[in-house]
Specification:
By secondary structure, the protein is of the alpha/beta class. It folds into 2 domains: 184 residues, Rossmann fold (3-Layer(aba) Sandwich); 109 residues, Pantoate-beta-alanine ligase, C-terminal domain (Pantoate--beta-alanine Ligase, Chain: A,domain 2, 2-Layer Sandwich), CATH 3.30.1300.10. The protein has 11 helices and 10 strands. Strands 1-2-5-4-3-6-7 form a 7-stranded mixed beta sheet, sandwiched between helices. Strand 3, helix 2 and strand 4 form a beta-alpha-beta unit. Helix 6 crosses helix 7 and helix 9 packs antiparallel against helix 10. The longest helix is centred in the middle third of the chain and has 16 residues. The N and C termini lie far apart (55 Å).
Length: 318
């Protein structure tokens, strides 16, 4: 007879009568998953790096609508940060995050340590090819290998039916779709709309780095995207749309520095040469505002007019 000890942290019961269970050990989480699957439950998974905001919570809500049980992971992944990036200062707010997850009735919080994800001697890495070397991948050369490797590990650990990501990280979504397709992961990827502050700023854990002046300046990213979308819909060439967008950014920037602005296929991230309203293009932007680097994007097709897109994506965070 074997005695199995499972270490869990149980938060107080939330308004809906749920408990948030926290695991930090892979084998213990897998025991819970095995029991849940034997009971016929479907599993939704939301991988995060913590410092949660309404964008993350919208993913949890989507999972709760579609799946019987929802797991959220919080892991600040060291391998996706470059040597000069903000790994050491990346916000870590686990207590606040757990309270937020309890409030939206998440079922499990997975809080692994680096040694749990990367055991001693681990050296395997996932290379997704060209899509991981352009735009964000060109500026952050090791980033997408780190992202793909840790997500592959987390998906192998949790083996969910559906995993949820936000549209704000559009290139990351494209990278992970390619990875799961290439490696035959039997998992559906659900992409949820970018959640924005009431003034249009895309929600991001890094927004808390912004000074009041930089916070105001950061609105230029979304304004530039809307300017380019309007240009696309006017019928001018996409190359002229980008030139117009770069001019708009330069004329309105006080301190912000543009990294890139482009129109791409949201699936391959190859530059789009023309716009057919039966298809969808992604307008992508990255800029440094003060000491904080921000990214944003919008999808443009005949199904999402500018006014409809803004209404559906904006959330008042107050």
């Amino acid at each position: 007879m074997f005695l199995v000890i499972i270490r869990v942290v149980i938060c107080p019961k939330n308004k809906r009568g749920y408990y948030l269970i926290t695991y930090s050990n892979i084998s213990e989480l897998r025991q819970w998953l095995s029991s849940s699957r034997k009971a016929g439950k479907t599993i939704g998974f939301v991988p995060t790096m913590g410092a949660l905001h309404e964008g993350h919570l919208s993913l949890v809500r989507a999972s709760k609508q579609e799946c019987d049980l929802t797991i959220v992971s919080i892991f600040v992944n060291p391998t996706q940060f470059g040597p000069t990036e903000d790994f050491s200062k990346y916000p870590r707010t686990t207590g606040e995050d757990a309270t937020l997850l309890e409030g939206v009735a998440a079922d499990v919080l997975f809080l692994p340590t680096p040694s749990e994800i990367y055991p001693e001697g681990a050296s395997t890495s996932v290379d997704v090819g060209e899509i991981g070397t352009i735009f964000e991948g060109e500026i952050r050369p090791t980033h997408f290998a780190g992202v793909a490797t840790v997500v592959a590990s987390l998906l192998n650990i949790t083996q969910p039916d559906i995993t949820y990501f936000g549209q704000k990280d559009l290139q990351q979504v494209a990278v992970l779709k390619k990875m799961t397709r290439d490696l035959h992961f039997p998992i559906k990827i659900s992409v949820c709309a970018t959640v924005r502050e009431s003034d249009g700023l895309a929600m991001s854990s890094r927004n808390r780095y912004l000074s009041p002046e930089d916070r105001n300046e950061s609105l230029l990213l979304n304004r530039t995207l809307i300017h380019v979308e309007t240009s696309i819909r006017s019928g001018i060439s996409l190359s002229d749309c980008i030139l117009s967008g770069k001019k708009f950014f330069a004329e309105n920037a006080k301190t912000a520095k543009l990294d890139y602005l482009s129109i791409v296929s949201p699936e391959t991230f190859q530059i789009s040469s023309s716009f057919n309203e039966s298809e969808t293009v992604g307008v992508i932007i990255a800029a440094k505002v003060g000491t904080t680097r921000l990214i944003d994007n919008i999808l443009v097709s005949d199904e999402n007019s500018a006014s409809g897109r803004i209404t559906s994506a904006v959330t008042n965070a107050s």
